[in-house]
Amino acid sequence: MAEASEPERSKPPERLRTLPSPALIRAGLAGSLAAVLAVLVGRPQLLALGLPLLAWAIIAVVRRLARGERDGLLRPRVRSTGRKLDEGGTVAIAVDSSEDVLLGLSVPVPAHALLSPPLGSELTARSARLVVTAQRWGRYEIGPLHVALADALGAFRTQTTLPAVPLHVTPGSSLLEAPPSVPAPTGVAGQHLSRRRGEGTALADVREFQPGDRMHRINWPVTSRTGTLHTNATFTERDTDVLIVTDTLQEVVPTDVEDATSLDVTVRATAAIARHYLSVGDRVGVHDLGTQIGPVRAGTGPRQLRVLTETLSRAHRGDSRMSRIHRLGRVRTSTLVVVCTPLLAPGVLGQIGDLLALGADVIVVDTLPRTVGDARALGTGARRRAAREDRYWEEAWTLRRLQRERTVRELREQGVPVTVWEGPGSLAPVLLSLARAASAPRMRRS
Amino acid sequence: MRSLVESLAQMLVDLGHVSRSQWALRLLAVVALASAQLVATGGDLFSTLLPGVTSLAVIVFGLLQSLRPDGPWGLPALAAPVLAAAGTAPGGAGVLALIGCLLLLAHACWSTAAMVPAHGVITRGAALRCAAWAGAAVLLGGGLWLLVLPLAGARTPEWTLVLGTLALIALVLVLVPRGTPRRRGR
Question: Where is this region: Disordered (chain A) (predicted)?
């Protein structure tokens, strides 16, 4: 487990002054009442009524004196098993006291996280443990941690508030179910099959031997059959540039807050696409048209994946203001550009047109949540609630979705594939059709 | 009417959030307090004025205190059976000691429940620790009782004095901390 912070560890242990609780006062007064009555009535037996309560109060006071707890109790420490976790992952936060005390811990229940104990409050002896399961990516603040400390009887107590424990939850680690092929690889060496001939493994042709050909490429069966030396020609294998363009100009939030927002879908899609292409050795970068994610420079390898997932997990959630579009000025020809967008802002369509004009292979991933503007949901519970409040959000979103269908159709007519993000299998048919289209024979126009 | 129904519904939802351990502790406190009053009044809660008033006080203040264990209503709730017992003289020292123990039980339950909010879970370790100290209080109370009675002039066998002193010594030994001696610096 990691300590809360380095400066906290170096400080001398802080003591929290304890005060008598209402329970101690109650026990003392109720016990004394019995003693007073015994004296007034002249019946010593009445003392038996109050002696247990008095004894409880005496034990509390003597115990405090004997254990030197007059100076207060040591401030508890916070430990956690980690600060970074994957979506759906679990982390344990422990609050420890080095003394023999009762420790009550209460934490406000954070959104989109499960706690154990379920409502984040527990009374234990000496050490309390809170297990947090993050259900969504992003930044979490677990706390502030309200801690009540008392002696073993609950007669003297104190309370303190410890700072919240920050957690970074990276987007889910689902692997994209897509072929590694891209329409036009542009790099020097990699795993994608290109249309250029050169050093590689995929057979392109069997041709006559030419000076400079390598000996191990000679095709001996064909040579013996024809009587002249023949060699195998192969296609080269290259890497490519993949640019993921994210549209975070506005976060579209469904009626049910438990459903994924457009930003959730965008982040999950971006993480899955980046993971897929980085795993086959491509260079992957991110350009954010809005401001919620920010740009990530193109890079390759596991480090780039780490940088990218951390940037995604730091995305600002819940900012409903429409931000200004940050246009992408230039892009290398034949770069594979995946635009993750809910297709609502007109500026994004202009950007897609610019990318096509620059020679990029563009794929659009539709990130508008399915439940937003779903015509089938009209008249259900959510709609009835909204109608009672004289609001017609669902109807408005249904109309907006219908308008959007025209945009999608126009994009498809211009040769831009549009696919709805429905998990790791979403991109496979689109990539296959792009690769097929790239290798298909073309008609020369003069 | 609508707001009343909504507030009642909200109250029911809030009750659903109360943890099992809190329910158990608060119910135990109410039961212990009611039992103490029942014993103090000799089983007839509303026979005359004094038992009637004190029984009413036990019901009202006991429930209020169980709703908010950190509240101030525990004192009148505990005082009511004491007054009832002083007024009605239900029996000998044994019966009075039983009432005292029941009052201590109610008090310890409230004291433990007050440490966390109503939705807070109380672990077995914490509950056992509180129970152990309540047991120690009963022991000490018994020891004090055996010491105080002869001093008050009541007729008791001489061995009770010895037993009371031994109980006190045992408790002092339990209370004194036994830490390991510090090592001298090198």
Answer: 177-196
